[in-house]
Design brief:
Strand 5, helix 5 and strand 6 form a beta-alpha-beta unit. Helix 4 runs parallel beside helix 5. The chain folds into two domains: about 200 residues, NAD(P)-binding Rossmann-like Domain (Rossmann fold); about 100 residues, UDP-galactose 4-epimerase, domain 1 (Alpha-Beta Complex), CATH 3.90.25.10. With about 325 residues, it is an alpha/beta fold. It contains twelve helices and 13 strands. The chain starts with 10 loop residues before the first strand and ends with a helix. Helix content is about 40%, strand content about 15%. The protein is globular.
Length: about 325
């Protein structure tokens, strides 16, 4: 692979760079002096997420679909680092339309990997999902845990990871995969799909509506702040740990009830859902030792930052028990 000196300005690509995590990564890469090309089809990403860096000399934005392999080939020439975040997320839509998820998360990853390989990139960082563990047998959950996806989103993200790692094995492709746990922070998605708890709760708080707590609220999640995830992505790109998988989490699990206490508001309880673990908790021993990474933002600090940025969710859908029951009907039907 190409030799890179510290004096060169690196050319980077961020697929899904207008999305939640992607936009934070773009911001950081530009601040660190890298050139950044964003590839996004804006199906869920928002140009507004990049408004604060839109005029930066080092930024180029391409409205492009990652499944267009011919277009991808031309965009990767001269690129040093690739961060592959573009993907379809969410559980229910993946159950409703698995082919669409496979096309984006698997075929799209294949197109990106091949374009990157043919352009001889120096690093390829794949953003994987801890959902591949399903309902784990052990906590904290290490990278060697049994893989048992519970729904098509989790499966397709894992298949994408397998492509990335297989290309390292066969072609010496300089890839590394990070399995993310429950990422939260400003600019997390506000799409019409029922999804991550923070976006749901913040929109409810703004509307003066009760928080819809699943089950008894004692389920815990390894909430990981987005800037800590960005740190991990950049550490991974700088590392020599190729063909490896790393968990990215805080290593601490907080209950939904704790989150409600910090956000302050009334609560209604909705039925517990099949296929969801009672606990998510990352074993981060490997990344702490091999990449010297550790999270910097505490849960309390992170929630405070979310509240300071709450206006972002003003136009987000406001969910209630009835609309959630309707949206998750197929979830119960197929996974129950």
């Amino acid at each position: 692979h190409k030799d890179i000196t510290k004096t060169m300005t690196l050319n980077t690509i961020v697929t899904g760079g207008a999305g939640f995590i992607g936009s934070h990564l773009v911001e950081r890469l530009l601040a660190d002096g890298y050139n950044v090309a964003v590839l996004d089809n804006f199906s869920t990403g928002r140009l507004d997420n990049l408004s604060h860096v839109r005029n930066h000399d080092g930024l180029t934005i391409h409205e492009a679909d990652i499944t267009d392999s011919e277009l991808m080939q031309g965009l990767f020439v001269g690129v040093d680092w690739v961060f592959h975040l573009a993907a379809l997320a969410d559980i229910v839509p993946s159950i409703q339309n698995p082919l669409y998820y496979h096309r984006t998360n698997v075929d799209g990853t294949m197109a990106i990997v091949e374009a990157a390989r043919k352009s001889d990139v120096n690093r390829f960082v794949y953003v994987a999902s801890s959902s591949c563990y399903g309902i784990p047998a052990s906590y904290p959950t290490s990278e060697s845990e049994l893989i048992q996806p519970e729904y098509p989103y989790a499966l397709t993200k894992f298949l994408g990871e397998q492509i990335v790692l297989h290309w390292h094995k066969v072609y010496g492709f300089p890839s590394i995969s990070l399995r993310l746990f429950n990422v939260y922070g400003p600019r997390s998605r506000t799409s019409g799909t029922y999804g991550a708890v923070f976006g749901v709760f913040l929109a409810q708080k703004l509307a003066g509506k009760p928080f819809t707590v699943v089950g008894d609220g004692n389920q815990t999640r390894d909430f990981t702040f987005v800037t800590d995830v960005v740190d991990a992505l950049i550490q991974a790109a700088k590392s020599q740990c190729l063909g490896e998988v790393f968990n990215i989490g805080s290593g601490i699990s907080h209950s939904v009830n704790e989150l409600v206490e910090l956000l302050q508001g009334e609560v209604v309880h909705i039925p517990k859902r099949p296929g969801e673990p009672d606990i998510t908790l990352a074993d981060t021993t490997k990344i702490r030792s091999k990449l010297s990474w550790k999270p910097q933002v505490s849960f309390e600090q992170g929630v405070q930052i979310m509240l300071e940025n709450i206006d972002y969710w003003r136009k987000a859908p406001v969910w209630d028990a009835n609309s959630i029951a309707k949206a998750t009907k197929e979830w119960f039907a197929y996974l129950g």
